[in-house]
Amino acid sequence: MPSPIASPLLAFAVVAAAAALLPSSSSQQQQQAPAAAVPPQPRGFYINCGSSGKEVQGGSIKWIPDDGFTAVGNVSAIDKPDLLPVLATLRYFPDATARKYCYQLPAVKGTRYLVRTTYFYGGFDGGKDPPVFDQIVDGTRWSAVNTTDNYRRGMSTYFEVVVQGQGKTLSVCLARRPETASSPFISALEVIDLDDSMYNTTDYGRYAMSTVARSRFGCKGEILSYPDDPYNRYWAPFADANPMVESHSSIAPGDFWNQPPAKALKAGVTTSRGKKLTVQWPQAELPAATYYVALYFQDSRTASPYSWRVFDVAINGQEFFRGLNASASGVMVYSSMMQLSGKTEILLTPNDTSPVGPLINAGEIYQIVPLGGKTVTRDVVAMEDLASSFKNPPPDWAGDPCLPQQHSWTGVECSKEPPVRVLSVDLKNHGLSGMLPDSIGNLTGVQTIYLSGNKLSGSIPDMSSMHTLTALRLDGNQFSGTINPSMEKLVNLKELYLNNNNLTGKIPGGLKNKAGLDLRTEGNKFE
């Protein structure tokens, strides 16, 4: 399971967890000095959860409140001095009856996104330790959120995942676990558009990629992010006992897959001529799983036709690349599906004729996360319409209605195997008001609808396409108008409860005379 990433959180310190969320004081001072123009803010959403207004932080990143992205939860300020503004508020979710709590953001189908969630507990609820809970992206459980260790060290925590848009919206949800002792919470949410050329070897119809580490080698100090990285990725410094070296030329990020920023390759670790270079990275042990690994190399010397630096690359004894020539213009090698577990050792073995020792400048590693599936699109759209037609739907009616299975919407049952369909909606005596949308007829896999004992009004829409519907209970509401004659086409219908509404007109003969149908119509104004 992907590990959390930690970073310091007080003012003038780097914020986040495996990389920086905000710049340090030194980077702020650099931005105040005359310099090259800052690149445009990375496309996407930068949401300061629980905030009441906009904030400009972290190299001119404009953070916005979370109003309009979620309809549930409460907000709280963190009562600690000198916090970075993006950590000074949060949104928490005290309703223990809800199966999940979702943010929904506009998305473009097929577009790749970097999703980053940031957490700083701050003792907002008077507790000692933060709760443990799950986070979900679209219909896939992404990871557990356990920030306890980082919080005790005075650190905030962030998580990242690379996903592809599956429709017009992308949902990021939190959900309780059996051991969740208090309210799940979130401090910040980012959804950043990535270029089509980045991380494009993964089948995002089947997988997501959860960040394990993203490091620039041979350096210490602050985390590198926007504006040096136009996609606001966090590149954490990494140094070990190996000699460090500075490069004499810059790469052109556009020449690389994944477009690493030039500064991420500006330094590296190396060794002397003829020696092997061993690097233990990442430092944490990895759970046995499949990983995407990308390594970046750049010869630190001034470019020359007479210089070369050739070596073989191995990871945990497995050949990764043979005969790599690390030129001054740089090179990247990757594996999109590599099995790893435990400690990770990168071994660089020089060619016999190489005049200098091997080196490495940067690396990224992501855990491959199998997607949990997706509810059929027509069902998702119809259920979203239904939720928006109710004035007070259950608080967890957002995100994927069926997935993950243990976090489906309240009152919604779905098929277990793909294609995942909505099978039942049961919200009787739920205090609902509003109307039934015409698109409810698109729920062609539904077998039962129980909406008795609410305050729903308006007409009953055409449901003739719902051929699998066996029971429709709308009794005890405020529906008006006539019974749609199309209901006669529901050949599998066994129960139709329309009693105690405000319906008028005539009861269609095909319903009155239908064999095996339990039809209840008393308490209306039929002719």
From TrEMBL:
It is a single-pass membrane protein. Transmembrane segments: none annotated. This is Malectin-like domain-containing protein. Gene3D superfamilies: Galactose-binding lectin, Ribonuclease Inhibitor. One of its GO terms (cellular component) is membrane. Residues 1-27 form the signal peptide. InterPro entries: Leu-rich_rpt, LRR_dom_sf, Malectin-like_Carb-bd_dom. The lineage of its organism: Eukaryota, Viridiplantae, Streptophyta, Embryophyta, Tracheophyta. It comes from Paspalum notatum var. saurae. Keywords: Leucine-rich repeat, Repeat, Signal.
